[in-house]
What does this fold into?
Amino acid sequence: SHQSSLNSRITSTTSNAHCVTMTLHPLHGLDDEQRRSLLAFYRSQEALGNLKITSSDFRDGELLVVNYTDQFNSSTAPEDWGWRMEAARGCVFFKAHNRAPEVVVRAMPKFHGYKHCAEAQQYLDDGDGLVTVMQKFDGSCISVTCYCGEVLLFTRGVRLNFQTKLARSLLNEKTMASLEEMEGRSLAFELIHQLDAKCEESRGPDRLVLLYVCEATGVMVPVTELEPIAQTLCLDCATCEHMTGNTVMQRIEVLNAATSLEELREGFVVDILGKRYKVKSQLYQSLARNPIPRPNQAWLHKCFSKSKCLEDVRHLVGNMRDAPLDYFTLAENLLDRHLARITEQVVRLRELHQQFQSPRDLQLDDTIAKEDKTVLFPCLRLPVGERDAWFESEACHFKVAQSLVGRFAERSHRGFPVSSGRLVLSGAPGKRSVQDWAEGLDCVVTLLRGDEVNERNLDLATELAQTGVEWLHLPISGAALQGSDDQAAVKAAASAVVQRVTQGKAVAVHCSAGLHRTGIVGYLTLRLLGHSMASSFELLGQIRWETRRELERLHFKNESTTPDTPGQLVSVAEELLEAESC
It folds into this structure.
């Protein structure tokens, strides 16, 4: 009965006289029992291996991300899906104890390839009927919503991973403020980024493209009406055109004739009578199934990782002669550029090695990068008269090549963007040297007691000074905040962090495990910067998920993952904030 009620459509007319069909999302309007029944159905399908449900803590319950499996997707005919499975394309529920699940994300429903649907194929084959066409982007789908005042990001299968963190970093403060005003809306973006291992080569800058919006009322906004929303968010929007079926198929033929990865495109999404279908180029589909990897920096990295000499790498590049399109040319160009960089590095290292008489001299010099030391140690073990010749050897060039490939993905900036700077929340430095641990930082705020610092044999003042990193020691007695000066130390630490991140600095805050003392200082920092409680929790999750989860459990469930008894950290931070405002 629910599905039949969805068949009624709301129709309006736009200024360009095209008829726009607005459809209610299948998950809209479900009552408590229907939502319970739906979640029970999804759990039964998970038991059958047809979908997967992943959970994460949220407030006094959990968020459940539901997504069908690749096996179900590839083996099930469109007529056998049903509305519940088509809606399980990254939909999200909130579930708390003894309460019916709530729908948090009404994700973009599954749309099938047009060749699997006789009605759509007939419509395009007839050729004269008008359709709305949108480019199909070769990226990762990110769902976004505002729930309980907090902006949440998901991929189709999980709440937090590399893609969601990258997507969040592309949302500036103005965009986040606009999203916080869209409580109950579900949005879908295509995340396009350089590290995506998809087929398309010409990706452009990292960006988010708005593809879909479902209003809080359950109405799915037509793609022709997305642009004003994208403008509000200061983000790109999928463009669309109206054309005949004949024109669509002619464009697909053009894509099938591509001769290089630069020209390759996945295809289109077409809207036919209010339903969406994928129309992909045959060439793209064949390449997506092809086991030969796309030649890029990641591929070159793997070539060097599994090779024992440069000749092995040249052999792997040569194997690309039989690969499709211009794979071989791209592979050759990648290797040539890498070899040119090797030559530059060898010249630099040849000059650098003259400063040292022995491996011990090199080891004691803290100004030399670890990667350079790794390359130079074999040279300095040789007699002085043989060292110049070593720089001409295949062994030297291959060692330099591996060093360069190891650095091909530039080391990311430490922490997550906060204000004008970056914030790191962490446990105490472990077995790694303090200088390696502090790389990329401008300031380290230590919350450990003095005896804890001594027990860990940490000489932070000396080691950080050698690298020019500022060190602030503001000890807090423990998670329970029982020391008489603890609250003053929390406030002083948070104020110090605020001052430095607003100056554009990268700041790390750490205690022992990076949960309680680090958590309250990180949370208060965000509140002092003007973020709401919901926004502060959202940012904590981006900076360090474990820290957010611990504070959230303490505040909303009065639970802790540790055997000690932490104080009510969020409440204490709120009291300090209130005192600050007075």
User: Anything to note?
Assistant: The first helix runs from residue 2 to 5. Residues 1-19, 408-412 have pLDDT under 50 and may be disordered.
